[in-house]
Write a structure and sequence with these properties.
Chain A is built from two helices and 20 strands. By secondary structure, chain A is mainly β. In chain A, a hairpin with a 2-residue loop joins strand 2 and strand 3. The chains are: A mainly beta, B mainly alpha.
Chain lengths: 308, 513
């Protein structure tokens, strides 16, 4: 019973990172059994009033404080004990605080559908704990005709993304754990609604290359209260492999070289009284970056685990 | 195991699908040298814009093709063009036999590079770009639409007058192209019977370099290097000997001086009026009409964009007042309310189509501006109809003069009427396009586009329907974008056509028809 619960809880645990990264990269280490399913509904609020223009951290009263609200329904299914499928369909709404100098309309709509497959390659006892090696492949692509070239209000970067991630997870039998993951994210091209743009030179096309990126995460955490509460601290770093800088006092665009470092804490609670139910709470903050928002993220969610 | 293989294959397909669409993205017009649709042998008799005559700039008669001097140049050309490196070959291909296209692209790119509005300082003040200290910050220039249309006009006019001069001497001296003198030479471009002294390519290189260097002082080094490469490529391509090039360089430099002398005194220096002047312009409008435009940015910009651009010297219109449109409907009037209703309708029911139109024509900050967009169209038509360089220069010159005159007329209306933008008159109104820092009436996009379209329709009658439809779409795009009322766009379109007619009437009499 304990083992099952542990797995169930774990499965529903990936969601926090998903929202933060852009809703498609399951990064945890835990597998769900075949024919187990987990649904989750997360509300995420991200805000920023500072952003990095190249390396320069600045404010801009044209946009003031930008808020991004996301509602994220997800489902995870155990296709096999060692293979899980995860699907997410975030709905995003963006706007600026009032008053602001730009008077721009925000945007709203479904962002990108994310489909991930996570496989467990190895899981064995090592000393006082278990060492697991997992890999995730993920694919996401826009679900609606949102305009990526409308930053900072655009819902996403508007291009397909393929991700390949390696996960190494070591967990003491007592419940404490540490995890590192690394992924390469291949990003395609997004289509603007103008057929000329400047990216350190002229481009006579509506297509924009969205830079590929490396994404790393390091996590330490522990299960507490007899495996009913999980708390963890995490650090994430994303580094684009190419791209241009946001130009002075100019809008960002999908071709920008985005980098950030982010710290966060996450708590998940699974009340013993409510079987299959779980609650999620997280907060994260960007502490370094380039060509991106210095955003704070807050999220809250519910998960429900059941057998198919 | 089976499952694992399936996954691996599926993943691989996804990677391929993503990388497969990562095509090389175009950074310039994709064309190669072409046979000109005509040579315009009589081009030397066309009326120049600024020069008093085609022989105002004087060059010496060239050495005869039988002279030892010329023979030596021919030998140099043969050795220079015989074994090109891959890089030299690439440059020859880049410049093509209509290098006006490339210089126009360079101008567009510089506009896009410098079309950045200065942001506020820490203390919420704004600093203006200063030509006396171009490094800034902020860097000089801020290549906004008025600045851009003026840069394009001077560039095109200098090129055009330079090429009329070149054509005049080409057909006065009739010195054949090197490959027509010596059969052993195979040029990189289409052969033609166009005389090669003076080199029209060199005229284009130096006139463009000098005009653009004045307009974009921080780019002088880059422009000099580009011109040098262009001049070298004429020899590598086997189409000009050194003396052709020297004569062409001289003509280009001289016409650039004439163009820049006009630019220095055209009133642009005063266009960005100081606050006191700007305030009095605003007060005059309020006294006259009972309304005024206000900048709503945060922090507030103390002065709108170039309040006195309407007083810059026009190319083909005697006085800006004669093309000034009628007054717009007063805020609160029935007609005004109709227009507001329409704007709210678009904002509340934005469709993908309206949004796409608003964005396609936006040409906002960081881009080549609407005048740049129309130069791009002109370039595509020039290639499509295989215009020779002098004909191409004429297309650019008349179009860009009409665009600049349109801009001047539009700015005159903007600050004469000083009409508030929709975000000022409609409480809580939000837009999908950025509201610019100048009054609403009339729409700059509409005037620029209609003026450009009218000239293009005159020069390419086969494309008249198309370009006029584009101009209409560019105009209405600003209404979809939420930053102009329909009357700004409709009246602006009429205004642009009216102003362009002056350029067209001049073109009809310039001897090129």
């Amino acid at each position: 019973m304990k083992t099952i619960k542990y797995i169930l809880f774990g499965m529903c645990a990936f969601v926090a990172t998903l929202v933060q990264v852009k809703a498609q990269t399951p990064t945890d280490a835990i597998m769900m059994k075949q024919r187990e399913s987990c649904v989750a509904l997360i509300y995420d609020m991200s805000t920023f009033d500072h952003y990095w223009e190249g390396d320069l951290l600045r404010v801009n009263q044209t946009i003031e404080t930008v808020t991004r609200n996301t509602v994220l329904p997800m489902i995870a299914i155990g296709l096999h004990d060692k293979l899980n499928l995860i699907v997410a369909t975030p709905y995003v709404k963006t706007k600026s605080s009032e008053p602001n100098g730009g008077k721009f309309a925000g945007a709203k709509g479904f962002q990108d559908i994310g489909i991930s497959l996570k496989g467990e390659l190895m899981n064995k006892q090592l000393g006082a704990g278990k060492l697991a090696l997992l890999s995730t492949v993920s694919f996401s692509t826009p679900m609606s005709n949102y305009l990526s070239d409308y930053m900072p209000y655009s819902l996403g970067f508007g291009a397909p993304e393929f991700g390949a991630r390696a996960i190494v997870h070591y967990q003491l039998d007592k419940g404490m754990y540490a995890r590192v993951t690394g992924a390469h994210l291949w990003r395609g091209q997004t289509e603007a609604e103008r057929d000329y743009y400047y990216n350190n030179g002229s481009y006579y096309t509506a297509l924009m290359d969205v830079p590929d990126a490396w994404d790393y995460q390091a996590v330490v955490g522990s299960w507490l209260l007899d495996y009913s509460l999980k708390v963890e601290a995490n650090y994430q770093r994303l580094v684009s492999t190419s791209g241009d800088d946001i130009r002075k006092y100019n809008a960002a665009q999908p071709t920008n070289r985005v980098e950030f470092g982010q710290v966060g804490v996450t708590a998940q609670y699974y009340p013993k009284a409510a079987k299959g139910l779980g609650a999620l709470l997280y907060y994260s903050q960007r502490i370094s970056g380039k060509n991106t928002a210095k955003s704070n993220n807050f999220g809250v969610g519910l998960t429900y685990q059941f057998k198919i | 195991m089976n499952k694992n293989i399936t996954i691996a294959v599926a993943s691989l397909c996804m990677v391929l699908a993503i990388t497969a669409c990562d095509d090389e993205l175009p950074t310039m017009a994709n064309f190669t040298d072409y046979a000109y649709s005509s040579l315009d042998e009589g081009g030397g008799s066309w009326t120049p814009i600024l020069l008093t005559s085609a022989d105002q700039v004087v060059i010496d008669a060239p050495a005869d093709v039988a002279s030892t001097e010329y023979m030596a140049e021919l030998t140099d050309l043969k050795s220079a063009s015989a074994n090109l490196t891959a890089d030299q070959r690439k440059k020859v291909e880049y410049w093509t036999n209509n290098s006006l296209i490339r210089w126009n692209e360079i101008a567009l790119e510089l506009v896009a590079k410098y079309n950045l509005i200065p942001g506020p300082n820490e203390d919420d003040t704004y600093t203006l770009p200063n030509p006396a200290s171009p490094d800034g910050p902020p860097a000089f220039p801020f290549a906004h639409p008025p600045y851009a249309c003026r840069a394009f006009a001077y560039l095109s006019v200098a090129q055009f007058d330079g090429l009329i001069t070149a054509w005049h001497y080409k057909y006065t001296f009739n010195r054949g192209a090197p490959y027509n003198v010596d059969n052993a030479i195979t040029p990189a471009y289409e052969k033609s019977s166009l005389p090669s002294y003076p080199s029209h390519g060199a005229v284009i290189a130096t006139s463009s370099r000098d005009v653009l260097s004045a307009m974009f002082p921080l780019e002088k080094e880059y422009l000099t290097a580009m011109a040098e490469e262009h001049l070298q490529s004429l020899i590598w391509a086997g189409i000009n000997v050194e003396s052709d090039i020297d004569a062409g360089k001289y003509i280009g430099e001289e016409v650039a001086k004439v163009a820049l002398a006009r630019a220095a005194g055209d009133g642009m220096k005063k266009a960005q009026a100081p606050k006191a002047v700007s305030d009095s312009i605003k007060a005059a409008a309020f006294a006259r009409f009972g309304w005024q435009w206000d900048n709503l940015e945060l922090p507030t910009r103390p002065v709108g964009l170039t309040p006195l651009f309407g007083q810059v010297k026009m190319w083909n219109v005697a006085t800006v007042e004669e093309v000034r449109p009628i007054a717009p409907p007063a805020p609160g009037s029935a007609e005004f309310e109709e227009n507001v209703k329409e704007l709210k309708h678009y904002a509340d029911n934005m469709t993908d189509e309206w949004r796409a139109i608003a964005n396609f024509w936006q040409d906002g900050l960081g881009t080549y501006t609407p005048p740049g967009h129309w130069n791009r169209f002109a370039k595509d038509f020039i290639i499509k109809y295989k215009q020779n360089p002098i004909r191409s220069a004429r297309t650019f010159a008349y179009m860009n003069m009409a665009i600049m005159d349109g801009g001047i007329s539009c700015w005159d209306a903007k600050y004469y009427y000083h009409y508030p933008r929709p975000i000022q008159t409609i409480p809580g109104y939000k837009t999908i396009a950025g509201t610019p820092n100048f009054p609403s009436y009339t729409s700059g996009h509409s005037v620029f586009s209609a003026a450009a379209a009218a000239v293009l329709a005159y020069i390419f009658p086969q494309e008249a329907e198309l370009v006029n439809a584009w101009a209409e779409e560019a105009a209405i795009s600003r209404v979809y974008g939420g930053i102009h009322y329909r009357f700004d766009a409709v009246v602006g379109t009429d205004q642009g056509r009216k102003v362009a007619q002056y350029a067209i009437e001049r073109a009809k009499l310039d001897g090129a028809n």
